[in-house]
Structures are given as C-alpha cells and as structure tokens.
Amino acid sequence: MEIVDDAEYECSSCGAGLQPEEVICHQCGQPTIPVEEWDGAYERYRLMVVIFFSINLFVCLLFNFWPPAGETITGLVLIDGFLLSCGLFFAYLLWPDIKPLLKWNHFAWWRLILLIVMAVGAALVVNYGVKWINEKIFERELYYYSSFRHLSYPKTTMFLLIALVPAFSEELAYRGIIQAGLLKIMHGRQAVVLTALLFAIIHMSLISFVWLLPFALFLGWLRQRMNTLWYGVVIHFCFNATTCLMELLELGLL
Q1: How far apart are CA 165 and CA 159, in angstroms?
Q2: Nearest of 243, 187, 186 to residue 215 by alpha carbon
Q3: Which residues pair with 31 in a beta bridge?
Q4: Are 93 and 48 contacting, i.e. CB atoms less than 8 angstroms apart?
Q5: Contact criterion met (CB below 8 Å) for 68 and 75
C-alpha cells in the first residue's frame, strides 16, 4: 500500500496518522469524515449489511431445517442459485467498492501456489479432525456424495455445487459485500473480525465454528492486504475441492 503523509491525513480528534480510505480512526475510534456525511453513510451501510445477512441467515435456516431444501438436489441448486443472485444484486448496489476487488491485485505465482498448498493442507487436517469427532463422539458418518450419486454426472455436480459455486458466492457475499459495508462504518480490523464471526455463524455448526473462525479471519485479512477477492476464491475452492476428493477417495470412487 502506498505510504501517505501523516500530516495530510490525520484524525481531527486525536491527531493519529490515517490512510486516505479510513473512515474510522484506529486510535480513538472516531469518524474521520464530516458528521452529516457519516450519519447518512452509517445508516445506509448498516441497513444494507443487516438486510443482506438476514437474507442469508433465513436461507441457511431453510437449508438446515426444511428437508426439501437441504436434502434434495433441487433444493441445493435453488438455494445456491438464489444466494448467488442475491450476492450479485447487492454487489451492484455496492459496485464502487466491489469493482476494485474483482481485479487480481498483487498477483504473484509464488503467492498463489503457497496459498493453494496451505488450503489443501488445512483441508486435510480439518476433515480428518471432523471425521474423527463425528465417528467417536456422534457415531455417524456424513457424505456429500450421497446427495449426488443418483445423478448422471454425480462427481461433476458435487464439485460444481460444493466447491466451485460456494467459493465465488461466499467470498463475494462475505469478504466482498459484508466486509465492504462494514468498512464504511467501522475500523478495518473490526470489520474483518465481525465478517469472520458472521461467516462462521451462518454455517450453523458448533464443531465447524472452531476452524471456520480462524479460516474466515485469514480470508478477511488477505482480502484487506491484497485488495482482491480472487486469492480468497482460490483458497475457498481448493479447500472445498480437497474435501470432495477426500470423500470420493474414501468411498473408492477415484
């Protein structure tokens, strides 16, 4: 990030040096823009984040507690399609803030490869841990493939709906829309933490919360650092795709 002159950008309340895009002082927590501008922006972006997350929460509740939505391939397709469409609509509403994130800023092959290796390694550790907990504590085994095995192309469909679509849809929704909205009303670190909490909560799993929170914190930090969604999309896809591959390997389908 470009270094700026602290004398040019400083908090009027405490004098701390600020980056040009900061709307909240990291030192004292006061708005850095005029009061009348802050009041309007705060209400607008807070309402947008609340509405968008509420829609996601309602849909996820349907998926988890209404069998036709969560236990049929039609329900999964409709839910994935609706969440993606909703994300695209809110991205349009926040387009000036979302557009820069759709460029692959700070691209480097070494960084991409390193992140892919990290995502695959994390997926192996998490999936073995979750599998052990499910077997030893809950005495059950859960497989994504069971929802797809009756289809003509079960493996392709599983990778599409479990790995590819959620990778883009969820990164656009959380590191894109929600984090962009929160950055308008709070400091960057607070926005990353709150986005990560909402991301972990929406998955509605106490076991998964343990690893989803640090996973989401890392994705949020990476989005802030690189100013792009694409590293997060790749990590998200590789993590989910590794989960699918592990399951197919265990079932003897590879």
Answers
A1: 9
A2: 243
A3: 24
A4: yes
A5: yes
Q: Give this prediction's pTM.
A: 0.88
| Number of neighbours of residue 157 by Cβ within 10 angstroms | 17
Rounded Cα gap, residues 51 and 45, in angstroms: 10
Torsion, Cα 254 237 203 67, to 10 degrees, reads -50
Q: Which residues pair with 17 in a beta bridge?
A: 10
Instruction: Please name which of 77, 116, 127 lies closest in space to residue 236, comparing C-alpha atoms.
Output: 116
pLDDT (tens digit per residue) in 138-162: 667 777 888 898 889 999 999 999 9
Residues making up the chain, counted from first to last: 254
Q: pLDDT tens-digit profile of 97-133?
A: 999 999 999 999 999 999 999 999 999 999 998 888 8
* Identity of the amino acid at 234: V
* Tokens, residue 248: 């197919």
Task: Please state the φ and ψ torsions of residue 17, each to the nearest 5 degrees.
Answer: -70, 140
CA–CA separation, 223 and 232 (whole Å): 7
